[in-house]
C-alpha cells in the first residue's frame, strides 16, 4: 500500500516561520512562570480520578479517598517521567537532524527552538515530581535500552512518527487535566504550559511526516512502521510504572495485572491516541504485521 497524503501540508519554510513567530509570542519559562513554593491543595487529585489506571476496579473501590489522591499524584508523575524520557530522546534526534542541515533555514531554526522548549519541559517535569515528593519512575531497563537504540537509529518517518506518539498521548491527557478543577493547580499549570508549546511541535512533526512519506519506498515504510510500533508499545506500556502502586500499599505485580485487565484503563489508553491513530494510518505508518504491537498496547 502506498502512502497517501490527505493531510494538507504548507510550504516547509512558511510553516517554520509561523512556528518561530508563535514561539516568540507564546512561550513560558516554567522556572519563573510556576509558583513552585505554593502549597499543594488538600483534597485535590494529581490527575483526573477517572484516568487513574485502577479506576473502575474492585481494587479502586477498596482504596480510601486519600489513597486514591496519592495514587493519582504518583501516576501523573510516572506519565510525566515517560514524557521526560522521550523528550531527551527527541532532543538528541533533533540535534542530529540539525547537524546535517542548513541552519539558515527556518525549518532548522525551528528544530533548534524545539530543543530549547523540550529542555525547559524536562526540567519542569523533573521539578513537578520533586515538588510532589514522588520517586523517580524512570522507564524500566528494556524501555531505557530500547530508547537508546531508537534515538541512535531512528531517522525520517520513524523519528517524526515516534515523536508524535509521545507528544500526542501526553497532550491528550494534559488537555483534559488542565481544565479539571478536581486537579492540583500545579498539575494544571504544568499541563497548560506543555499543551501550549506542544501544539507547535505536533504541527512541525505532522507536516514533516506528511512531506516525507510520499518519497519513501516500501522497505523504508516497513522499517519505519516497525520502529514506530516498538516505540509506541514501549511508551504506552511504561506510562504507569508498577511501583506507583506501592505508594498506597498495593502489590505492584498484582495491581499492574488488574490495571492492564481493566477495560476502563484500556479505553483511556485508546482515548489518548484517538487523534494520532487516524493520522498515522492515513500516512501509512500503521499497518501490516507490526500492528500487533499497537494492539497489545491497547492503542488501537
Ligand atoms: Fe515537551
Ligand atoms: Fe514536544
Short description:
This protein has 300 residues and is mainly α. The chain has 13 helices and no strands.
What's the arrangement of secondary structure elements?
Elements: H1 12-25, H2 30-33, H3 58-61, H4 65-99, H5 106-132, H6 141-153, H7 156-177, H8 185-212, H9 218-238, H10 252-261, H11 263-272, H12 276-282, H13 291-296
Helix pairs in contact: 1-5, 1-8, 4-5, 4-6, 4-7, 5-8, 6-9, 7-8, 7-9
The chain binds fe (ii) ion (2 copies).
Residues 87, 118, 121, 194, 198 line the site of one fe (ii) ion.
List keywords for this structure.
single chain; 300 residues; mainly alpha; 0% strand; disordered N terminus; binds fe (ii) ion
Describe the structure.
Helix 4 runs antiparallel to helix 5, helix 4 packs antiparallel against helix 7 and helix 7 packs antiparallel against helix 8. The N terminus is likely disordered. The chain starts with 11 loop residues before the first helix and ends with a helix. By secondary structure, it is an all-alpha fold. The longest helix is centred in the first third of the chain and has 35 residues. Helix content is 67%, strand content 0%. Bound molecules: fe (ii) ion (2 copies). One fe (ii) ion binds next to helix 8.
